[in-house]
Specification:
Elements: H1 2-20, E1 23-31, E2 42-47, E3 52-56, E4 62-68, E5 71-78, E6 84-92, E7 97-104, E8 118-120, E9 135-138, H2 139-143, E10 162-163, E11 172-173, E12 181-185, E13 188-189, E14 194-195, H3 203-208, E15 212-213, E16 220-226, E17 240-246, E18 254-259, E19 263-271, E20 278-288, H4 289-295, E21 303-316, E22 321-329, E23 332-336, H5 338-342, E24 351-370, E25 374-394, E26 410-433, E27 437-456, E28 460-462, E29 478-480, H6 482-485, E30 487-506, E31 509-520, E32 525-539, E33 542-553, H7 557-561, E34 572-584, E35 590-606, E36 614-629
Parallel strand pairs: 1-7, 6-8, 12-17
Antiparallel strand pairs: 1-4, 2-3, 2-5, 5-6, 9-16, 10-11, 12-13, 14-15, 16-17, 18-19, 19-20, 20-21, 21-22, 21-23, 22-24, 23-24, 24-25, 25-26, 26-27, 27-30, 28-29, 30-31, 31-32, 32-33, 33-34, 34-35, 35-36
């Protein structure tokens, strides 16, 4: 009895004891244009009860605040000749050192001197020249997003132009599909960031864009999103641009282990223990969702299993050089067998599915400061994706009454798709300030080996088809035939991209013309993409923006491989223009409105589900208005 009482009291006191442990906050201030450290910046930290403390940054641009209670703080940075910058909500965690970086822009006032200019900012902001609809969410905003749960991709719901139905982790933007989105992780291209983005199975699962993100909670430090109008540095997809920045190791070691019915998750965040200049962020998790489905009597869904391993190290080699290593390994396995079919009382879904994917990314980033304002970044990466998907069909209505799942007649391994992609790439970017503003240029060289194969074990009746698919009159199904469906696509090519853009800083006006040139080995063509954007700050609380450009999107390899006649498909062309404004009504409310128009050409459209043939026969336009009040 005494032991039980002691445990109850200890359990009740643990949260109090944890809150009593102080935390520390290190604020780093840098110039918004050159990313160089700023000394003599006044930093003020205020808690929710209005208590504040202040300090000035040292020669390295840092200020340390010790003994802070765990909770949320407002952090404000001010310096002579620069805009006041705030981080309105920043979390300090007990027993660890939190690091916040603030970027302070220069003040360039051409009219009467204002008593105060306040810029409500984050540790990192979205690219202002990508339009007012571009946005950035930091770690806390991603973690606390309503309805996100533990999935960072669902935390993006509500961003301008983005739509998600909640059932899938994938999302659509301004009418385009989940596979039209351009996704980068630490500026490495990685389009497969969601588990169970199925190639075969039910129609909803194929077009939905996947169910579960590969990123563990807290592993993403920030997400920058643009629904259209981004600069010349990025291309290849036209739906949207999503740049995910993974977390880096902190100054103090923190470990966590989470166990639940689905599996386990382990995280380490802190110094490497090998070198004081190297930090480590490591997370590993293994989930078997079949256990969850058994608990809630939904065993008919199947048995999905995932493993996600992320390792990121950051080493400061010198004051000018930084080296990062990134490893992502995210295999998955999904099985739906006769036992699962037998659990479906109405036999609504009789498909038998086996899908395996091995996904990995290894990248190295070397970042070097050049001169007083330049930065040269080189990234070398290897991406591998090997996916095997097989579908069969069960006939439970033909089984004897009361018989077990083993008595259900079935035709297994009818339809198989094999997808193998091996990609090695080099990305080089150089940015520097000049007398006009900021100049950026870069080069990308990517070698891709693609090996795709479609197999069909005999004729197969399908009840999902297009109205113009060939079939006899009054026949409500189509028949897949091996001689029509089967296809093999094996190709290797090197894509080369170069871009350049110049920001012209004209006080309240900023202009950015840019040009991107892509040599696509798979389309055997060269594509030239001009880009132009402008922004005008009428006042600190009102900004207008204009974006325009030509964007090209290469056909998905799965579509190109579906039929030999698809091998010569060319890239889709999208001409984009948008105009909008962003206005701070007061300290609590903001309104953003952007109108856009897109002209679409050479769209890839399916000619027939019975053959997999696709054509560059689509054209049209896409327009709308995004309005966000928050």
């Amino acid at each position: 009895m005494k032991v039980r009482t002691y445990l109850v009291l200890l359990t009740a006191l643990l949260p109090v004891l944890a809150l009593a442990e102080p935390g520390e906050l290190v604020v780093l201030t840098v110039d918004a244009e050159s990313s160089r450290a700023l000394p003599d910046v006044r930093i003020e930290v205020t808690d929710r009860e209005g208590r504040s403390t202040s300090a000035s940054t040292d020669s390295s641009g840092g200020a340390r605040f010790a003994g802070l209670e765990e909770g949320f703080y407002l952090v404000e940075a001010s310096a002579e000749g620069r805009a006041i910058v705030q981080e309105p909500v920043y979390r300090v965690v007990a027993r660890r050192v939190s690091v916040l970086e603030l970027q302070l822009p220069m003040l360039e006032l051409t009219g009467p001197v204002l008593e105060e200019v306040l810029v409500v900012a984050r540790a990192r902001q979205a690219d202002s020249l990508s339009g007012v609809s571009s946005s950035f969410r930091n770690r806390e905003e991603l973690r606390n997003a309503v309805g996100a749960g533990a999935d960072v991709m669902r935390a993006l719901d509500g961003l301008p132009g983005l739509a998600s139905d909640g059932a899938f982790a994938g999302f659509t933007v301004r009418g385009r599909g989940p596979r039209n989105n351009l996704i980068f992780v630490d500026d490495f291209p990685l389009d497969k960031v969601v588990h169970f983005d199925q190639t075969i199975g039910e129609e909803d699962d194929i077009v939905g864009g996947g169910r579960f993100s590969i990123f563990a909670p807290n592993s993403v430090a920030g997400a920058e999103f643009s629904p259209g109008g981004w600069g010349a540095a990025y291309g290849g997809r036209s739906g949207s641009l999503l740049r995910l920045e993974l977390a880096e190791g902190g100054l103090t070691p923190v470990t966590s282990l989470r166990l639940d019915i689905a599996g386990a998750e382990f995280t380490y965040d802190g110094p490497s223990g090998i070198s004081e200049d190297t930090s480590v962020f490591f997370t590993a998790r293994r989930f078997d969702f079949g256990n969850v489905f058994k608990l809630i009597d939904q065993e008919d869904i199947g048995t999905p299993k995932v493993t996600d391993i992320i390792l990121k190290t950051t080493t400061r080699l010198s004051e000018r050089d930084e080296l990062q290593f990134l490893l992502i390994d995210a295999p998955e396995d999904y099985t739906r067998d006769l036992d699962n079919v037998a659990e479906d009382e109405d036999f609504d879904d009789t498909s038998l599915i086996s899908a395996e994917q091995d996904l990995s990314l290894f990248g190295v980033t070397w970042r070097r400061r050049v001169g007083d304002t330049g930065e040269w970044t080189n990234r070398l990466y290897l991406r591998s994706s090997d996916k095997n998907s097989t579908q069969g069909e069960a006939f439970p209505d033909l089984a004897p009454p009361g018989a077990g799942s083993s008595a259900i007649p079935a035709r297994e391994d009818i339809f198989t798709i094999l997808e193998d992609e091996q990609e090695i790439g080099w990305r080089s970017d150089f940015t520097t300030l000049n007398r006009f503003g900021e100049f950026s240029t870069g080069l990308r060289v990517v070698n891709l080996d693609a090996d795709f194969e479609t197999l069909l074990d005999g004729p197969w009746i399908r009840y999902v088809y297009e109205s113009d698919d060939p079939r006899p009159p009054n026949q409500d199904f189509i028949v897949w035939l091996p001689e029509v469906i089967e296809s093999r696509y094996s190709e290797s090519g090197t894509n080369v991209t170069a871009y350049a853009e110049q920001v012209f800083d004209l006080g309240r006006f900023e202009l950015r013309p840019g040009l991107r040139v892509d040599r696509d080995a798979f389309a055997d063509d060269t594509f030239i993409s001009p880009r132009f954007s402008a922004t005008y700050a009428v006042a600190p609380d009102l900004r207008f923006s204009f974006t325009s450009g030509i964007y090209y999107e290469s056909p998905p390899l799965l579509v190109r491989a579906a039929n030999p006649d698809n091998f010569d498909l060319t890239n889709e062309e999208i001409a984009h223009v948008a105009f909008g404004f962003d206005y701070d009504i007061n300290e609590q409310w903001n309104v953003m409105l952007e109108a856009y128009y897109q002209e679409l050409d050479d769209l890839v459209v399916d000619q027939s589900r019975a053959s997999g043939r696709a054509l560059n026969a689509g054209e049209g336009d896409n327009s709308g208005i995004d309005l966000v009040v928050q």
